[in-house]
């Protein structure tokens, strides 16, 4: 058994810093590289891509990355775990196998292929058999939106990842694998932890939670003393140095930018935490109130004392469904009276939309530079009388007293609704404000706003007994 296992976070989301995983592999010792590509909305995007092209449906950036780092990973015996497979895990694995062959690495790469998370085709059978699938937000039954569902994926935990590692995989590709499971699995595999040793499983889960968002735990997006975080252009991503007893140190490679300290770890721990006593994953219910942090040197924080509770008998399933159309348009109004001009333009636009009889579920106005970030927290009445105004989702008007004249304010108006024709007409009503509204307007060089589909999120619970996962090994 190893005394220390190093798991490096190399991707916080699909679209994260492309150089980060390369640096993790090349700038210092690691044993595992975990890459988290998926967010809730990503699955529906990938499903739409695959509907247009059956060969798509996975994070193509992952294939490009493996082309660059696969020789390094094989030479240094670094194993890679990812959920880049999206809704086409087999296609992603085949692409990686092709890359390995292109690089002349036949016989050196074993790809673990994890399937079973995509349950889109099973929904109707479950509903017919009386399985209750209700929204975790408001209890709405899935049947109310079933005809508009685009994707449905269960959050799988560490077990299939551990199985793939036990079978000798050095590259693992899955679909909706949990962010935390990508870090937990190597620790179970290396240390032989029992899946019901809840304290250790909780520790590995929290280790994964700390590094799942990439540099957010090593100085990125860090509020505390952010002006003095060094060399952010070359920020180092986090690494967990884990021990068999469940304690671990969070650090980063020497010579990289950013900062790992107790504050940066605390800020990441708060991310998506919910009830600190009950952070629920497929593997364990982690207790954040037990976490102990201590300074272990420059860019090193030791985490220990973590406790956990038995996991639940359900999986969370992320379901995305079509919910109408949206469009957002912007104009910039300049000093003097920038905010007054922007609010006047909003009034004029809304009156014209009403005159046309257009149908929207929501019209939302923001005045960027005045209230867009803090919204109603910065507002008071009366509306429009020397103040900033915005319409909330229900059409109510909120305002803020003006105490200064802004040099410029961006008017940002968004609409959403199920009548596509109304949304399309909205896109043609922004530009006329340039010559038929208040003066001092600019910032419309991008042309008419786009009409986009809306994918709504439907989180639900599924009994674990209904889900079957499969782990295959593909050799390049």
Folded structure, characterized:
This protein has 476 residues and is α+β, with helices and mostly antiparallel strands. It has two domains: 5-117 and 155-312, no CATH class; 323-455, Alpha-Beta Plaits (2-Layer Sandwich). 27% of the residues lie in helices and 26% in strands. The chain is built from twelve helices and 21 strands. The strands form four sheets. A ten-stranded mixed sheet has the order 11-12-8-7-1-2-3-6-4-21, sandwiched between helices. Strands 5, 14, 15, 18, 19 and 20 form a six-stranded antiparallel sheet that branches. The longest helix has 18 residues, at 338-355. It is globular, with a radius of gyration of 25 Å. The two termini are 28 Å apart. Mean pLDDT is 91; it is low at 379-403.
Low-confidence regions: 379-403
Using only C-alpha atoms, the radius of gyration works out to 25 Å
* Overall 3D shape: globular
User: How many domain regions?
Assistant: 2
Which structural class is indicated by helix and strand composition? alpha+beta
Mean pLDDT level: 91
Proportion of strand residues: 25-35%
- How many helical elements? 12
Specify the helix fraction band: 25-40%
Main sheet strand line-up: 11-12-8-7-1-2-3-6-4-21
| Strand segment count | 21
Distance between the termini: 28 Å
Main sheet, how many strands, which sense, barrel? 10 strands, mixed
């Amino acid at each position: 058994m190893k005394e220390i296992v190093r798991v490096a976070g190399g991707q916080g989301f699909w679209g994260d810093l492309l150089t980060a995983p390369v640096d993790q592999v090349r700038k210092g010792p690691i044993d595992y590289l975990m890459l988290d590509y998926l967010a809730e909305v990503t699955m529906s995007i990938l499903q739409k891509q695959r509907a247009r092209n059956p060969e798509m449906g996975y994070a193509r950036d992952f294939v490009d990355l493996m082309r660059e780092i696969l020789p390094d990973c094989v030479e240094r015996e670094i194993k890679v775990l990812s959920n880049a497979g999206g809704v086409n895990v087999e296609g992603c694995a085949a692409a990686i196998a092709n890359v390995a062959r292109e690089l002349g690495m036949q016989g050196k790469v074993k790809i673990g292929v994890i399937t079973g998370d995509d349950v889109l085709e099973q929904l109707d059978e479950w509903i017919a058999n009386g399985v209750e699938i209700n929204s975790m937000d408001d209890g709405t039954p899935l049947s109310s939106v079933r005809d508009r569902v685009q994707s449905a994926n269960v959050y799988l935990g560490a077990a299939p990842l551990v199985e793939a590692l036990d079978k000798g995989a050095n590259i693992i590709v899955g679909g909706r694998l949990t962010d935390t499971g990508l870090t937990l699995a190597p620790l179970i595999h290396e240390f032989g932890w029992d899946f019901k040793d809840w304290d250790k499983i909780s520790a590995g889960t929290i280790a994964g939670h700390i590094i799942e968002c990439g540099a957010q735990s090593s100085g990125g997006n860090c509020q505390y003393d952010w002006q003095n975080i060094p060399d952010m252009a070359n920020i180092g991503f986090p690494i967990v140095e884990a021990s068999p007893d469940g304690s671990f140190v969070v650090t980063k490679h020497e010579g990289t930018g950013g900062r790992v300290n107790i504050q940066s770890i605390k800020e990441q721990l708060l991310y998506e935490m919910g009830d600190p006593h009950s952070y629920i994953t497929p593997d364990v219910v982690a207790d954040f109130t037990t976490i102990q942090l201590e300074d272990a040197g420059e860019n090193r924080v030791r985490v220990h004392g973590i406790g956990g509770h038995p996991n639940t008998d359900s999986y969370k399933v992320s379901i995305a469904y079509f919910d109408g159309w949206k469009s957002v348009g912007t104009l910039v109004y300049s000093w003097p009276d920038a905010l007054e001009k922007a609010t006047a333009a909003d009034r004029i636009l809304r009156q014209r939309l009403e005159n046309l009889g257009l149908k929207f579920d929501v019209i939302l106005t923001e005045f960027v530079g005045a209230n867009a970030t803090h919204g109603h927290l910065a507002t008071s009445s009366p509306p429009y009388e020397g103040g900033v105004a915005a319409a909330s989702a229900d059409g109510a008007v909120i305002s803020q007293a003006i105490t200064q004249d802004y040099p410029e304010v961006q008017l940002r108006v968004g609409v959403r609704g199920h009548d596509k024709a109304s949304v399309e007409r909205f896109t043609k009503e922004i530009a006329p404000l340039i010559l038929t509204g208040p003066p001092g307007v600019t910032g419309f060089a991008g042309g008419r706003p786009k009409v986009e589909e809306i994918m709504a999120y439907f989180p639900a619970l599924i009994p674990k007994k209904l889900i079957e996962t499969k782990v295959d090994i593909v050799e390049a």
